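anyone seen this seq b4? input:
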Amino acid sequence: MNTFFIILTTYFFFILEVLLIGQSFFYTRRERKTERPAYTPKVVIVAPHYGWDDDTAEHAKSLLDQDYEGEYRICFVTHEKDNSGYDVSYPYLRELVEDVPHADVFLAPNIVDNNLPRSQKVQNLMTVIENLSEDVEVIAFVDADVAIQKDWLRLLVTPLQDNKIGATVGGRFYFPQTWNFPSLVEATWVNFQMALQGDHWLTMVWGGSNAFRREFLEKGQILQRWEQATIEDLNTTRAVRDVKRKIHFVPDCVAVTRTVNRTWGEIFEFTNRQMIMTRHMGLWAQWFGSLMLFLPKAVLIVGAIPFVGSQPGLLPVVFIPFFEVISYKLCCRNLPQWLREMPRVQDTLRISKYAAPFSIFLAGINALYAAFQRKIVWGGVRYEILSATTCRVLGRVKDEN
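predicted toks r here
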């Protein structure tokens, strides 16, 4: 009876996971067949920056020449720093936009030096939004560490012609450039999340690639929600739900982050931070789902392995990790064709799928950790998340470099 219960419980959680992946699969197929009229309002792209390298430069340049028939401006923004006066990205961004008439660079105040009650990224975004011209109709957001395609802006903006849609969001895909195991685990941890996006209430806004109409700033009380917040995207998610609008996932609008030789320490910091923010921002379903969907399954599998020799009836439990590999492979079939055909992506997917069982276990551990922790480190600053709309800035952390 105990053996049967363990097997039943493990497969129950696995079936729930498969149902989510299946829902995402069919949504993606429907969405790709949907044709919409052209919609080209005036758009501002807000692109916050922190640090600078060759990838960042490439990503910034890709924003300058988007395949968008309407008028758009790019507002790069970084922040002041006490030691040099500004983040290292500032002079590079200034040079980049020097001869570009539709691009600007903003310098936001440093939150620590100015005793501001919000995260640095939120401050950067607010600095741009508070200076927008009145004729801007749509605001799009993109992170500095993602690579996008030329049709990124058009794909995000077009669905916003439907007034039932409060915000659009693209997917994010981690693409390890080296096959060290921690990087592969992190990649599958992130990439699995696209299976949670679709035409349902679990869909969330991701800050690295999203857009909404200018009018939503007031309707959703966006700036009020951000005033003392740690993170902007989860507050935007709550705002869309509060005004009874939909978050529309655009499956072909995928932003790619290239990673290299990640360490376990970096991965635990990143994944724990994501889950802590999810829980304390009030997105209980996503957090609780991770806790109950992934952790019990992982614990049952690990606990059953030592007893398989003496209790052969537990053998079906051990098969679950192999099924997780298949699940991840199916999940990746939703990726747009242009991404699946990128050099080395197929090889990376073929290798990284074997890290999927470990990423599922990690997600469960993250959810458990988030139940007891409110403090995070982000961008060299430590924060304590007090509520969905309130944080405490605890100050800078020592530079580990």
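Strands lie at 43-48, 72-79, 103-108, 138-142, 165-176, 209-213, 246-259, 375-378, 381-387, 390-396. Residues 2-33 form the longest helix (32 residues). kinda curious what u guys think
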